[in-house]
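Ticket #4471: structure export looks truncated?
Reporter: QA, pipeline team
Priority: medium

Steps to reproduce: submit the single chain below to the structure queue and open the exported record.
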Amino acid sequence: MRDLCRVCDYWSLQGAARHVISAVEIALADAKAKSLNIPVHKLYGDAKTDRMEMYGSGGICDTKEHFREELKQLSELGIGLYKIRAEKDDIIRTAWILEEAAKHGIRVGVDMCQNLADPPQKVKEVVDYVTGIQNLTDQEIIFLEESIGPADPEGFKALRRCVSPKVCGGEIITTPTEMNERIRSQVYDFVQPDASVIGGIGAVMEVFEQANQMNTEVVVHAWGGPVAIMASYHAAFAGGGNLVEFPMLDFPLGDEMLGESKAILNGFLLRPDGAGLGITFNDEIENKYRFDEKAVYSCKTLDRGKPQESYWEEN
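Actual output as written to the record:
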């Protein structure tokens, strides 16, 4: 790891270089834990719980039917918190899903997806969004994620003073140094480090340590492939987290690689206690899911024919 950091730190102390470091650190942790026949989280400390509450991470929906399908899935899993994606103009749509989720006893948080926006939205635009929703429903947004651009920590701080939902972020911050500075500056109500982005599981442990000193909650970001997801889950258990993300992805390969490692009971993630990360990969799986050069994860926003506002106003 030291040799790798010497090479990557010369290249860059942030960005993609940190993703490389994250990948190698996670692989080494998996290998060491397997050699010791223990779960990865035991390398970083004793887990304080055997289960952790989950929130559903989906809501990339353009129809009521899709939203209702995801709410049904969460209800069946016993998960009571649902994160949707919304833009500043999605006021009527957001109010509709708040009301619909309440029928299932499910609360709602909103990811405003400003981590890649250029230029990102302003504090006033977020305040107007929240106010507009409050004028339409008594149901409250629980949290606002990445509602301001990542280069504007003062904007996050200003937003915290203006709205009632908790303000959170940090999934694309690539060093614990920067994340910890934001924690000390009280930029967020809770922070969302990702082990596959910030430098590995050990880097997330540094964030937990600083957050505990500042009484700031850590809710790990868990998205992408099964290795990245499980690395963040192990970090959450080792660090003493209370809430983790459940990606609502249609990803059969990921489900097969995870197997029983991602076990959910009554809305809680059960602590993975198998050796290593708990990932299964073999020739049978590789042959079943052949490499597809056209399968690319794209961050480009596509026009999927989003319905007009009148659609969300209808009963």
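Status: closed, not a bug. The export was complete when the record was re-opened. Leaving a note from the reviewer for reference: The chain has one domain: 2-313.
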